[in-house]
């Protein structure tokens, strides 16, 4: 299986263009161009057309995971954690970070499998799905009562008189009936069966192929979903069906019904891509919970405030990534940003590579959630150029409002705090 490993924001070119080994076959480059030129809702947010030294090029954006072309060529997009990130380290960190993403917290790193380091990311993802389905088979594939209508030789259930008269006017040995049948034909099983068939055509590892065939045999009596979107709406996890959730999360992703990014264009090319901002936010939230001091609570994705009201309606919901509370009182607003800063470039021109928009955003959060006084925090990834907290920022409009820019260290899995600051009353180092 042909695969190319690149980092976020790397550029891809056609064959013969070089670009440090980031060239792809001509048909793959043509397919990527087609995706970029798609219009409307089909326009991809993970690719854009650009140029490199006068040559056409395609730049991948802030999405990570696997992009698979119709011909089978795979592009693994890895997170750029630092200036000199190795592909092996970025790959391991990506799998570790995906474990924290909502809906994928059941992701298991296969530390005991020595082949995982060399296994393509798509194979790793498919292996996770197959293992989740294996758990369902071991614990039992659930059945449900489904309403059926049929023209039977014996009365079963209730007689549907209108159809009975039209169908059996001269057939007195037949009964058109409606009855309930306890079968495995339910939306959850149909989605899993459809994803299994798709995974069988995608996986190349012999072990995964064998397991996929075995699982397809188990689900052979279950129809494949004809309408993925409709079956997704019909998912109903009854009591005791929590073990279905991991497999369904993967099935949604594989079938592209609930994919973070759905494939564009006329080709059916599965792309398992994840927005890096969401991955980083989930990773920080999981580990930051261990730094919150006793008596305080860490909340995620709070959305109870709005920026304006208009005609008795609330507009523009404000939703900070993280909020530290004590009871009903908000104490600290934190927002994660997946961007590489430079702690040396602290002049008025470069501004550590910070974004003015982010400051405006935190200022709005502070006024709504903290009543304009207190502390707000911007969290960026730790790099060799950003190793310690920046000096505090004072808002000119309020002497009681401070903004802190802090690095999150991937090695210690901790948010690095200033030695002395008001933040220490809420978080421990």
What's the quick description here?
The protein has 429 residues and is an alpha+beta fold. It has helices at 26-36, 87-98, 121-139, 161-167, 187-202, 206-218, 228-233, 245-255, 276-288, 356-369, and strands spanning 3-7, 11-12, 47-52, 55-60, 63-68, 74-78, 144-152, 158-159, 175-183, 271-275, 297-300, 305-310, 313-318, 322-326, 329-336, 374-381, 393-394, 401-409, 414-415.
List strands and helices in order, with pairings.
Layout lengths: L2 E5 L3 E2 L13 H11 L10 E6 L2 E6 L2 E6 L5 E5 L8 H12 L22 H19 L4 E9 L5 E2 L1 H7 L7 E9 L3 H16 L3 H13 L9 H6 L11 H11 L15 E5 H13 L8 E4 L4 E6 L2 E6 L3 E5 L2 E8 L19 H14 L4 E8 L11 E2 L6 E9 L4 E2 L14
Parallel strand pairs: 1-6, 15-16, 16-18
Antiparallel strand pairs: 2-4, 3-4, 5-6, 5-10, 7-9, 8-9, 11-14, 12-13, 14-15, 17-18, 18-19
Structural features, described:
- The protein is an alpha+beta fold and 429 residues long.
- It has three domains: 3-140 and 187-276, no CATH class; 144-183, no CATH class; 292-425, no CATH class.
- It is built from ten helices and 19 strands.
- It has helices spanning 26-36, 87-98, 121-139, 161-167, 187-202, 206-218, 228-233, 245-255, 276-288, 356-369, and strands spanning 3-7, 11-12, 47-52, 55-60, 63-68, 74-78, 144-152, 158-159, 175-183, 271-275, 297-300, 305-310, 313-318, 322-326, 329-336, 374-381, 393-394, 401-409, 414-415.
- The strands form five sheets. Strands 11, 14, 15, 16, 17, 18 and 19 form a seven-stranded mixed β-sheet that branches. Strands 1-6-5-10 form a four-stranded mixed β-sheet.
- A hairpin with a 5-residue loop joins strand 5 and strand 6 (74-78).
- The longest helix has 19 residues, at 121-139.
- Residues 109-116 and 257-269 have low confidence and may be disordered.
